[in-house]
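Methods — Computational structure assignment.
A single polypeptide chain was analysed. Its primary sequence is given first, followed by the predicted tertiary structure written as structure tokens.
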Amino acid sequence: MEPDAATRRFRLWLRGLRSLRGDLRSARWSNDPAQLDTLVGRFVAHMEAYGAARAELDPVLALSAPWASAAERGAAYWLAGWRPTTLVHLLYTESGRRLEAQLPDLLLGVRPGNLGDLGPAQLARVDALHRRAVAEENALSREMARVQEGHGGVVTAAGLALDAGALVARVGAVLRGADALRLRTMRQAVEILQPAQAAELLIAAADLEIGFPEFGLKYGSGRDE
């Protein structure tokens, strides 16, 4: 896939993400868990489709992310996208913000059922998810560092030479692992949460994903959408 085609495909995906974010926001206060659950499933499927499309790209193209600005790639990206642990940090941030705002109600026994109302079992599972994501992130970072250091060279009659094809293949494997970890972390976070809580987290995640290009336009030579 050529860079221009990949960029068009990304913009279409981002447009779909905006639409899903709007649907989640509209449904958040509908008091219909089934509708929220359906929309959460659609959101995760949209992320799955994005990962599948990226897997079709040349690894070097995916890593360079031509649809992104230099500011995005330099300041916001880890292995061509957001860190999986960012989603967990986002969950903690949104939970803490809501908890602080509604603490008097919680002390009176009012249970709003949002991210500020996470139970002990949920918090324990979120903590375990965070630990797993950190460990897997670190492993992928180490592997990418080995690739960038040129490990994987082959010995020839003239000495040590780089096998470019093998290195590109390894880059592709690392990027696919990163995308899989991003999706797995999102899926597992959603499984921990109630539908309304999951909707709030995914709205915040969409705000972050959509905010990346806006960040690039503001602080670097970003691309128009």
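Note: Helices lie at 3-27, 33-55, 59-64, 70-75, 84-107, 120-148, 164-192, 195-219.
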